[in-house]
Amino acid sequence: MAQGLIQHLPTMAIALVIIIxxxxxxxxxTNIADRLTAKTTMRVSLKALxxxxxxxxxxxxxxxxxxxxxxxxxxxxxxxxxxxVGTVAIGFAFQDIFENFLAGVLIMLRDRMxxxxxxxxxxxxxxxEHISLRETHIRQFTGELxxxxxxxxxxxxxxxLTEQPIRRWExxxxxxxxxxxxxxxxxxxQSLEGLEDVAEDKPIDVYVQSFGAxxxxxxxxWWCGALPRDMFxxxxxxxxRVKRGLEEADIEIPFPYITHTFKEPxxxxxxxxxxx
Length: 276
What we know:
Layout: H1 2-38, H2 44-70, H3 76-93, H4 95-109, E1 118-121, E2 124-131, E3 135-140, E4 145-149, H5 150-155, E5 159-160, E6 166-175, H6 181-191, E7 205-211, E8 216-225, H7 228-248
Antiparallel strand pairs: 1-2, 1-5, 2-3, 3-4, 6-8, 7-8
Helix pairs in contact: 1-2, 6-7
């Protein structure tokens, strides 16, 4: 064993030199990758991924060469084949983890959905706080933090509420069926004059939308900030203005009505005590 060890000392020294060179090359390549990615607008997590991929590729190559030098009977092709079989086995065992990892990479490569955007996905509504390679943190508007796997955001439709600085909102208001609709439209428009915090270049729309169960429904549409809190504040002002204007014009905002129709006469109850 001692003689065998002495005979292998030169090859082990060469393998050690290869490992040291691999370390130096990996460090040098990582620095170059950091300088190149620093000039781009890539996310921090994606920059870390590029650095990890570069370092891992160099180290795998160096270790394969060192193993071939130490074990001459082991070819590089055999090592690569064994590594491929092992990778397939690991892939089946950790399918969900790799799925989220790949989805995280693809999400980071997108131009949409940045940190700070308000999004809605699968009933979750909130602001994006962090995007990693496996999961995305969404702070809901009610205060809870929801950690979503990246595969869910990649497979399902994601509604980005703040992709544009403004967006259109709408609310429904009903009036009684005996109302003059032209007059009601004029009253609603006049009550909304001078409304603040709405887009000045986009008019407020007032349309008759549908015949409801107890009322004729109007749809009021306006453009304002994309955040839900902007909508809540302006919707509150709109509803107050419209209600005040309709009441001053003696236009009824009806309660739900229920009409019972009997197609056959109601039978009279017989009282046997009255007979005789």
